[in-house]
Amino acid sequence: MQNIADGLVSKLNASGIAVEITALHKCGAMQGVETSTTTSEYMTAFPNECREQFREKIR
After folding, report:
1. CA–CA gap between residue 54 and residue 48 (Å, rounded)
2. 36 - beta bridge partners?
3. Which of 48, 44, 41, 49 shows the shortest CA–CA distance to 18?
4. Helix/strand/coil percentages in the chain, nearest 5
5. Could you tell me the pTM of the whole model?
6. Are 41 and 1 in contact (CB under 8 A)?
7. Closest CA to 9 of 39, 40, 44
8. Which residues span the domain enclosing 39?
9. What is the pLDDT of residues 4-37, one digit of tens each?
10. Cβ distance 58 to 50 under 8 Å?
11. Is there a smaller number of Cβ atoms within 10 Å at the N or the C end of the chain?
């Protein structure tokens, strides 16, 4: 996750970035158990209210 955020900051010349990835575990899904994991990474100073707004916008 850190590599993705670093790459985006570098390529976009951004002062800050937020990345969130949700992945489905295929080994469990094939057995009928759907579990997913969500991972977030924030680069630079992202106040909590900005993090909440980001999450609201992407859902």
Report:
1. 10
2. 24
3. 41
4. 45, 25, 30
5. 0.65
6. yes
7. 44
8. 2-58
9. 888 988 898 888 888 999 988 787 777 887 788 8
10. no
11. C
Contact between 45 and 9 (Cβ < 8 Å): no
Give the chain's radius of gyration (CA, Å): 14
Residue 54 CB neighbours (<10 A): 16
Rounded Cα–Cα distance for residues 25 and 17 (Å): 26
Q: Give the separation between CA 25 and CA 13, rounded to whole angstroms.
A: 33
**Would you put residue 2 in left (φ > 0), alpha (ψ -120 to 50) or beta?**
alpha
Query: DSSP character for 24?
Result: E
- The total of other beta-carbon atoms located within 10 Å of residue 18's CB is 20
